[in-house]
Amino acid sequence: VHGGSHVNQPISLGPTMIWLGVVFALASAGSDEKIGMDGMNMGPQGTVLLANTVLDGTQSVSATGNLNAEGGKLTLSACLTVNEKPIGSLAFTSISSSDLCSARGLSVSGQWLYVAEAGNGGNLCLEAEGESLCYGDSGRVSRINLANGNQEVAASGLPATLSGVEGVGPVFSLVAPNGDLLVLVGGPTSVSLEEFASVGVAHPERLGSVLRIKRDGSITRVGGTVEYELAHDPDTFGFDTNPYTMAFLPGNNRVVFTDAGGNSVYSLGLDGTLTLVGVLPSIDRPCIPRGVGPCTPIPAEAPPGIGPPFCCGFNPAATTYSSNPVPTQIVARPQFQNELYLAQLSGAMWNSDQASIYQLSVTPLRITGPFISGFNSIIAITFDGPSYLYVLEQNFFGLGSFGGTNRLSRVTMANKAVEYISTNLNYATSILAVNGVLYATMNALGGCAASVVKADIRTASTATILRNFGPNDNTCVRWTYESVSNRLTFASAVGIVSSDPLPEQLSSPATTHHIAVTVKKSPLSSDVTFYFDGKKVGQPQRIAPGVEECAAGATKIGWGLKGEIEEIESFADDLTPQQIADLANS
């Protein structure tokens, strides 16, 4: 099912007014064709014309219900308000060998890019929850020199477990001010340390811990979560702890890290003092009724208390279930010393669009609440400067509400606009932005065929959407910037027009500029004038009358997204600071 949706568009049939709405469209099993409807109008001979926002084309439904292609692809669809249309594409290329084992978190120190490897377990095995769980010392941390590409092992012989295909072991690393390597090790999940010791594991206490590795290779345990989880069980879901990522707090003498198993966030001093920062709230969701969707495979006579959580154990009396919130990545916002952001994994399958990014305050250190919501299974986040936050979502087992194994998006911090980027990422578990380059792990869920890849995020697309603005999300106004020609394009209900070349190249998305247009409408034409940082760019661009659609080639379609642009009677050639501020906030 591809979730398209525009509803309740009035269509006039002489004296009769009817309302039609496209609720959803189905793709045939095994078919590559996808359908996403976003607007309709009446066509000839009783047909209904539909705008297909996935195929960038138009289709028609005949009076007998047949779906047909109608015309070619649109040459410009910048005005369609479709959140999941990518703003550009990134082609990632490898910078490492392809033999990393269960690659996890990425971090940087100086010219070195560090990648934690959760390993592939070992030969000390026990039974856990009906599966074989094997322990070994295959965990390690590798590093890549960003200046010359050289790759080496920074630390090895670290604890690692393997159950099925997914390794649990070193998940993140940071370089301490004195040069020691701090390694966060995942596990032991819901298995006790005594069980590991019973099969011969020498240092089970290193699971679920931060380890300090000195230059001479010696390993000491700074602290961990097992003892606290056993004593307090902060999320009340029972013993389960599995640290995932960490970050330095200001001063670099404490780290803050997530516990994906215990749904908690902790801070740990380098002296070993552990403090609970907070627990993410569980997500209460309606039960999927017995016999519906994924709750159908269980026979009708199955007793209550079994089955997936979202089936509520097939208990007819249950109405809601609690979904684990699962914190994943925690990062600091550059140039904002006291701002931390925390990603949440929840949001898979029937919990779609439930994952949030939370904000943390530093003084006092606490979770202050959601910053932005509506994601699916966030596995990693990273900042490219203070203005943009990149979000990596996962769909490893087909539980997400999007295609492929990963989805990458960019959040503009100023207005929380979310824009999607098409990539070739596959089973990526981590992302890290460094000086305009985005690094990621590839094929990293399990096994020893992972690699580190990179792409230049500041040249992600020759046409970059700068901002969507207007009274509401349905206003047909869209800015794009063509880096090759160095021109702005402004698309609106009056038409599409491009500026003269700008006075400077927009090479960095982190740079803030004030961009405005004035639109003077008359019966014969519309004049559009561009302003860049308060200065007029070239002469007014004239649009001939009769152009009343958002996208070229779409004149047959009533998109239902036209927005009125208020006429501004007059402006001086150069805008005043107050006029710039008024336009920026309009």
Question: Overview of this structure, please?
Answer:
There is one protein chain. This protein is mainly beta. 4% of the residues lie in helices and 44% in strands. The chain is built from three helices and 42 strands. Strands 9, 10, 11, 12, 13 and 14 form a six-stranded antiparallel β-sheet that branches. Strands 7-32-31-30-29 form a five-stranded mixed β-sheet, with no helix packed on it. A four-stranded antiparallel β-sheet has the order 3-4-5-6, with no helix packed on it. A hairpin with a 4-residue loop joins strand 20 (254-259) and strand 21 (264-269). The two termini are 37 Å apart. Residues 1-38, 53-57, 70-85, 461-476 and 545-573 have low confidence and may be disordered.
Give a quick summary of the entry.
Helix content is 4%, strand content 44%. The protein has 586 residues and is mainly beta.
What is the secondary structure topology, with strand pairs?
Elements: E1 6-13, E2 16-22, E3 37-42, E4 48-52, E5 57-61, E6 67-69, E7 88-90, E8 93-94, E9 103-109, E10 112-117, E11 124-128, E12 131-145, E13 151-163, E14 166-168, E15 170-175, E16 181-185, H1 193-198, E17 209-213, E18 219-224, H2 226-232, E19 243-248, E20 254-259, E21 264-269, E22 274-279, E23 283-286, E24 320-323, E25 327-332, E26 339-344, E27 355-361, E28 366-375, E29 378-384, E30 388-394, E31 406-412, E32 417-423, E33 431-434, E34 437-442, E35 451-456, E36 463-465, E37 478-482, E38 487-492, E39 495-498, E40 515-521, E41 526-532, E42 535-543, H3 577-584
Parallel strand pairs: 7-32
Antiparallel strand pairs: 1-2, 3-4, 4-5, 5-6, 8-35, 9-10, 10-12, 11-12, 12-13, 13-14, 15-16, 16-17, 17-18, 19-20, 20-21, 21-22, 23-24, 25-26, 26-27, 27-28, 29-30, 30-31, 31-32, 33-34, 34-35, 36-37, 37-38, 38-39, 40-41, 41-42
